[in-house]
Amino acid sequence: GAVVSQHPSRVICKSGTSVKIECRSLDFQATTMFWYRQFPKQSLMLMATSNEGSKATYEQGVEKDKFLINHASLTLSTLTVTSAHPEDSSFYICSASVGMNTEAFFGQGTRLTVV
Amino acid sequence: AQSVSQHNHHVILSEAASLELGCNYSYGGTVNLFWYVQYPGQHLQLLLKYFSGDPLVKGIKGFEAEFIKSKFSFNLRKPSVQWSDTAEYFCAVTPGGYNKLIFGAGTRLAVHP
User: pLDDT-derived band of residue A13, with 50, 70 and 90 as boundaries?
Assistant: First the structure.
């Protein structure tokens, strides 16, 4: 199957700083990328959908000014957690797909710890 | 609100036992249905998917699932589990046929030798 790579896999940052997470589709062009958040022992919650070249669509309750998403090319989307706080500590996962009604491929996830 | 319910949060089985994990969704329109598996420390992987056609879907590693539209269900089954099936299993739905996945809470399966 297609490969989606996330970087970094783990990051620790100080409260108040910003951290950027990258999501790359390595062997296909992803028109759509999704960002999810997974709390411990809970399911994945969709945060936002990003389409290449346009603004991301955020789910209800997700602060778009806090979680900045950029989908600048068909192979790269970035999620920047701005002014991170300890409550932002979580597991962030991206997925990428080509068009509608197609399989979404998942990255390995990024564990963010804010201290 | 659209939701996906997985009935069992934790399942413990012995090897060779049969497995059935329940999944129900609340969405009246067209849906695509998925089961994903997450082995310890690994990515989410697609087990199987249903878009249309035969409601009995066969996936990888001997898994299958049956879409019963009247019951809004998509239960996952395997006739004989192995220790290597120990993982977390997520049911997911894309309402309206788009690929925005809504996940269930997950079922943690432990298979004992």
Answer: very high
SS3 B69: helix
Provide, as residue numbers in chain A, all residues whose Cβ is less than 8 Å from the Cβ of B44. 44, 93, 95, 106
CA torsion, ordered A35, B41, A103, B52, to nearest 10 deg: -120
The pLDDT tens digits for A50-75 are: 888 888 999 999 999 999 999 889 99
Tell me the torsion sign for CA atoms A64, A66, A70, A75: negative
A102 and B102 within 8 Å at the Cβ level: the answer is no
B46, B99, B105 member nearest A101 (Cβ): B99
Bond preceding residue A8 cis, omega within 30 of 0: yes
Residues paired with A78 in a beta bridge: A22, A70
The rounded mean pLDDT for chain A is: 91
Asked if B90's CB is within 8 angstroms of A100's CB, the reply is no
Q: Of A57, A25, A93, nearest to B36 (Cα)?
A: A93
Predicted pLDDT of residue A51: 85
CA nearest to B64, candidates B52, B83, B53, B79:
B79
Locate the chain B residue with the closest alpha carbon to A109. Answer: B43
